[in-house]
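User: I'm curious whether this sequence folds into something compact or stays loose and floppy. Could you predict its structure so I can see for myself?
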Amino acid sequence: HKNPSKQRYIAASHSCTTKPLSKMITYCLKLIQRTHNNYCKTIAKNSGYNRMWIVENSVEVMQKIIDNKREPARNVRTYDFSTLYTSIPHKKLQDQIAWVVSQCFNDKSRKFIKIEGGSARWSSSSGKNDYCWNKDELISHIKWLIANIYVTCGKSTFKQKIGIPMGTDCAPFLANLFLFAYEYKWLTKKFKAKEFDDLKKFNLCFRYIDDLLCINNDQLMDEAMTDIYPDELKLTSDDAVKQCHYLDLDLDIRNGQIHSKLFDKRDAFGFSIVNYPDLSGNIPAKQSYGVFVSQLIRYGRCCMSITDFIHRTRALVRKLTKQGFRPKKLRQVFEKFVCDYYELLFKYGCSIDYICDSCC
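Assistant: Here's the prediction. I'll summarize afterward.
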C-alpha cells in the first residue's frame, strides 16, 4: 500500500532450536521492563520528570493526555526509527541490554529471576527451580542468543551479524530496552545538570518500539536525537505540528486541547480489506459477536467526539450486516455494551437511547 512500495525481510522461528530459550528470555525481559517502568513512575512522582517513554498501546497515551488537560497543547509530532531493526551492531545491543538488566538486580528481593508457568518473577533465592537465573546467567543467555541467529532461505543458511535478531520472541523487548537505555541515561544526565526546562518538554514523550510521539516538545527532539541515540539510528519525522497519526489515534490540536479519533491506515487503501468474521462460513456465530464488542471498546477509547464514534460504529454495522450478522442481534449486543462500558461513553454527554438509536 505504500508509495513507493518497500520490501522488508521477515523470518519465523516456530521450529527453531533457539525457540525455547527465546521464550524464556522474553518472560525475563518483560519482568525487567515492568521493573524499570515501576521505578520510573516513582521517579516521576517524586521529581515531576518522566524517564520512561515506552508504552504498550494507545490507551496509555490517551490517559496521559487526559491527565494533562490543564496544560494547553502547543504541538504534536511523530518520529520513526527507519533503521532500528537492521542497523544496530550486535556489540552495542549486547552492552546496552546487559546494562538494562544489571540495573534491576540486587542482593535482596531481586537476586534471581524464576521462570515458571509462562511468566517470570523476582526471587531472593534460587530454590529447586531448574529455570532460575541470576544476573550474569541471564545476560550470558541474551548475549548468546544475539550472537547465534541464523536464517534459512531456500537451501542457503545465513548468520545475522547486525540488527535486532529476526524471528525471535524477545525481539520487541530487545528493541524497546535497547532504546530505553539511551533515553534513560540522557534524561538522567539532563536531570543531574539541572536542565529542568528541557526535561519538562520531554515529559509527554511516548514510544511504541520504533514509533515515537512528542507532545509539547517544541521540536526539541530534532536537536536532541543525535545526543540521545547512537549514530546508527536514523530518526525521521513528519512536518506537522498541529495534527498527527500515532498508533490507532488521529490527534488534532484545537483551541489548545488535543482531540482524538480513531485512525486506521487501511481506510486510505485503494482496495477493500477482508476482515472480521463472515457468518456465511462455518464459524461459531455466538463468539463472532464478540468482535463487534471489541471494536466498540476501541472506538470508545479513541474517539473524543460522539460524531466520530457514531460514524465508526455505523460503518462497522454496515460491514458486519453484509457478512451475515443479524441487525437485531447487533442492536442487542450494542445495548449491552452501552450498559457494561458506559464509562467509555459518559464523556459524550448523551443519553443511552440517543447513542443506541444513532449507532444501530
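Summary: The CA atoms of residues 248 and 263 lie 5 Å apart. The chain has 13 helices and twelve strands.
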